[in-house]
Structure formats: C-alpha cells, structure tokens
Amino acid sequence: LRLEQALRKALAQQQLEVHYQPKVDLRTGQLQSLEALVRWYDKELGQVPPEHFIALAETLGLIQQLGQQVLRQVCYQLQSWAELAVPVAVNISAKELADPLFVAQFRQILAETAVDPKLLELEITESCLLPERENQTRHTLQQLRHLGIRLAIDDFGTGYSSLSYLRHLPIHSLKIDRSFIKALPENGSDKQITSAIIAMANALGLDLIAEGIETQAQKEFLLAAGCQYGQGYWFGKAQDPAATRVLLEKATDYS
Ligand code: G
Ligand code: G
Ligand code: MN
Ligand code: NA
Questions:
Q1: Mean pLDDT, 10 residues at a time, the chain of 255 residues
Q2: Where do the structural domains in the chain lie, given as residue ranges?
Q3: CA atoms within 13 A on the CB side of 11
Q4: CA–CA distances in Å: residue 27 to residues 24, 106, 253
Q5: The whole model's pTM is what?
C-alpha cells in the first residue's frame, strides 16, 4: 500500500525519469540507437526496480499514464537531441497496446512534440502477441506503423508467436531475449537456438538485436553468427540524459 501511494504521487508529480541504454551496430562499433528505460527514485523507498512498479502500475490501471509520461519525456528528449538524430526505442506493455485509446494518445504526443516519427521505435514483448487477440493486435500495429514509427518484438524466443503470425505483422526488428545470450558461447544448444533465430530473422527480412551482451566472447560469437546489432552491460548500462548526451557527442567506439 505504501508503494501504491508512493507510485500515485510519483505519477501525479511526474517524478519518473527516463534513462537510455546504447544499442550498438556490432559490425561498425557505432552506436545505432538507444533504449529508453524508466527509473524511479523515491526519497523514502530509494531506487524502486522497474519490474516492481511496472507490474504494480499494470495492476492499478496506471500503466497508460506511466507510458504516456515516458513517451512524452522521450519525445522532448529527442527534440533536445535533434542535431544528433539518434533513434530511441520505448517499451510498452500488453495493457497499453490493448487500450483502444492507445494509438490516438500516441498520435497526440507525436503532434504535440513534433518529433520525427522515424526516430521512434516501440518495443513490444512477444507475450503481448496473444493468439486470441491476433487480429486486433495486427490492426493496432498497422496503425502505429502508418504513423511512421518502427516496431520491434522484445524478449523474442520466450513467447509463442508462430512464424506465420510474425510474417504478417508490420514489424522491423526482433530482439533476442537475453536468456539465450547468457550462456554463449559455451552452451551448444543456446548457440544453435541463437543461430536459428538469426537465420529466421534474415529469412523474414527483419533487423536483429541481441540483448544482455555482457562479455566480449558473446559479442564476438554473435557478430560471427551474423547478428548485426547488440545491447548489454558489455557496451553500457542505461544512463541519465546528461551522461547519454556525452556518449552521443563523443561518438563512442564500441568495437
Ligand atoms: O530497466 P530494467 O532492465 O530493470 O527494466 C525492467 C523491465 O521493465 C524490462 O522488462 C523493461 O522492458 C521494462 N521497462 C522499462 N522501462 C519501461 C517503460 O517505460 N514502460 C514499460 N511498459 N516497461 C518498461
Ligand atoms: O525486457 P527488456 O528487454 O526491455 O529489459 C530491459 C532490461 O534489461 C533493463 O532493465 C536493462 O537494465 C536490462 N539489461 C540491459 N542490458 C543487460 C545486460 O547486459 N544484462 C542484464 N542482466 N540485464 C540487462
Ligand atoms: Mn526492451
Ligand atoms: Na528483453
């Protein structure tokens, strides 16, 4: 209950902050884009982990409000980084995507902030793609696609989306879930699964990004196996906007 009250207050006072984690082009070692990750520091509770307060916001019906605050912050941030033209990906949860008002509210924030939609990507977890909501989800994604933004399937490999379903979705990229990356390059079956996902993404014409890269050996394996993009603590954790601007301005080399 304390957490609930604190979260309501944090939303009312717009105390959530967005941090940014680099996504890297493994072939060039250049930063490709950023992932926006929400952070909440409460004076009494300290840093609250996103898994806790996002799940709570979903339960309390506050996730739409949270998502809109995050998106608005990201759009204003994109404005202030306009000369750097860096794409930013935002996570959305299944509850947001299922909200019939989601697309209209999204469009409203784009209009209000006048960002170039090409610089925005939405990360949708694979578990959002419930088979029984297939048609509605496809329709929503098509509307989002028509706004000019990019769409990615997050935590790919942990859900149950069929290939035929994926093939009919207007998406641009897949993010391989970090559970498959963790034991690379030692684990033989994870190597095979990863290689199969890489082949599949190529066959479907989708960009592929591996999450949770923590070692040089993981990075080298993925690069050699044909995965173009990567993200993880090996390259850097999410950082606040000021630290992120420094990364962008000095054109950090991640190779
Ligand atoms: O930042 P961290 O790795 O601790 O994030 C934990 C989880 O919270 C991840 O699953 C991530 O996708 C999710 N998450 C982070 N920021 C947001 C956000 O702004 N909106 C939603 N819906 N989920 C987020
Ligand atoms: O579900 P999603 O993929 O959006 O989760 C993003 C979460 O993963 C964030 O909380 C982020 O802090 C975390 N994360 C990012 N890179 C790594 C990594 O290399 N290792 C681990 N364990 N977590 C990571
Ligand atoms: Mn994500
Ligand atoms: Na993920």
A1: 94 98 98 98 96 96 97 97 96 94 97 96 89 88 96 91 84 96 93 94 95 98 97 98 95 92
A2: 2-247
A3: 19
A4: 9, 33, 11
A5: 0.97
As for the ipTM of the complex, it is 0.97
> 62 CB less than 6 Å from ligand 1?
no
CA atoms within 13 A on the CB side of 184: 28
Give the gyration radius of the chain's Cα atoms: 18
Which ligand does the CA of 52 lie closest to? 1
The second-level CATH assignment, the architecture, of 2-247 is Alpha-Beta Barrel (3.20)
* Whether the CB of 126 sits within 6 Å of ligand 2: no
Residue nearest to atom 8 of ligand 2 (CA): 212
CA-CA distance, 45 to 38, in Å (whole number)?
A: 16
